[in-house]
Amino acid sequence: MKRYAYFPGCASESTAKSTTLANEFVFGALGIDLIEIEDWNCCGATSAHTLSDTVGLALPARPLAQAEEEWPDLDIVTGCASCYARLKVTNHRVRTDKEARFIVEKVLGKPYEAKREVLNFLDILSGEDERKAVENALLRRFKNLKVACYYGCLNVRPAELTGVEDRENPQAMDELAALTGAEPVDWGFKSECCGAAHQNDAAFETRPLAARIIENARACGADIILTACPMCQLNLEMRQSEYIRKREDKLRGKPSFPLFSMVLPPDPNETIPVLSITELLAIAMGAGGRRLELDAHFVPVGNVISKAFRDENESEVFI
Amino acid sequence: MTEHETLNELMEKADVRQYDCYQCGKCSGGCPMSDAMDFGPRGLMRCAQVGSLGRILNSDTIWLCTGCHACVERCPHDVNVPALIEEARYEAMRRGIKRHDSDVLNKTFVSSVRTFGRNHEMLLAGLYNVFAMKPIQDMASVPHMMKKKLINPLLKPIHGTSEVAELIERAERWDK
Questions:
Q1: B168 and A296 in contact by Cβ < 8 A?
Q2: pLDDT for B87-144, tens place per residue?
Q3: Are B136 and A258 an interchain contact pair (Cβ–Cβ within 8 Å)?
Q4: Cα of B113 to nearest chain A Cα, Å
Q5: Is residue A28 scored above 70 in pLDDT?
Q6: CATH of region B3-94
Q7: What count of CB pairs under 8 Å joins A to B?
Q8: Looking at residues A208-220, what average pLDDT do you find?
Q9: Does the CB of B174 have a partner CB in chain A at under 8 Å?
Q10: Alpha carbon of B48 to those of A178, B62, B78, B90: distances in Å?
Q11: CB contact under 8 A, A202 and B102
Q12: Where are the domains of chain B?
């Protein structure tokens, strides 16, 4: 049985609840053991390293050093692209930059050698054995379900950290989605930025970033968008009604009232559900909508999924 | 230290050489934020080439960068613009230049980590909306999030909270 030290990330306790349930379901079904790093702390996300380089290195180093101390032979895995980037940067800098290692060990007060790798779920699931295990664990398949796989920036870039071969047109998630019978569409915004934390502090400037991603996915005929990052997920989903309302207002030539566009639900034909890749895999592996708490999604997903099963009897069972 | 020397020091820390850039513009073409910035990554490199540190530090560009690395990815000479932007942000903060309220979000975020050891998303969004005077931003999503328990108002601090707070303090002291 394969084992990994698991860094869930802060979103796992709040906005990424259904994704976290799905992660646990998928890895349980594959027989991969995720051992949560005890008393892990926040990696600092985009904020800590923007304020100070040393704080940005020190925060991820604490859980990493702890994992190294307790399970020196386990790689670290995380379900969040931002955590992945921060842990990976710290790991990489400690390995390659002697000064950075000195600072980290000094500030941390204990040795840290960065012996093991930091991985994300896509890295693990696209391994040869794991892909076979996924195929064997699938209990039901989809048909006529077009998916747009959205990787986000930090799962693919910077290249020297992630090791993804084709950063403009990554394939790992498309291949996984295709295993379930879903059809990945070719589209242009696979690794475009969604605005990340700037959706809070530069809302006016970054709203169009996420809107473009949603519109391109729709234009390419996707029924759902798949993500591999809780932050992307939230940005594409939570503010979707706001973008669509604004666009509707624009088309009608009426001025848009921010409060109005936020509160009124948009035309359901215009919205596009956003799921994480592990949620799609978990559903195909037999998890029910209640078990995954799919109703926690801002954009309802139940209808699209239940219509898309290859075996029609499955639709009645689902949710 | 003269402006020129400071700029050279920033470039060195970021491991960027200004004449690696031949102004092809692939970075600005691919930058998702370039139309909101006062100049894109190519303009930033031009400022660095002509030694205009002041324009860099007083720009919105360094605060609007999302750090997506699309520019480095597409750069034919691997000029690491985000690293330079990060160094420029530190320098702007040292000089107390305030152009944007992203530092309000960042400071609130780090205080939340200091108090809870983790990111208290609800407190972060709430306090940010108060400090940045944007009371209605994203508030329409709150009822759904509360109903589905997507945000947890009663997040418990982790056991090692004081350890994390001390870690942040030591790291901040190291910078000074």
A1: no
A2: 999 999 999 997 777 788 999 999 999 999 999 888 898 899 988 888 888 888 888 8
A3: yes
A4: 7
A5: yes
A6: 1.10.1060.10
A7: 182
A8: 93
A9: yes
A10: 46, 13, 16, 16
A11: yes
A12: 3-94, 102-175
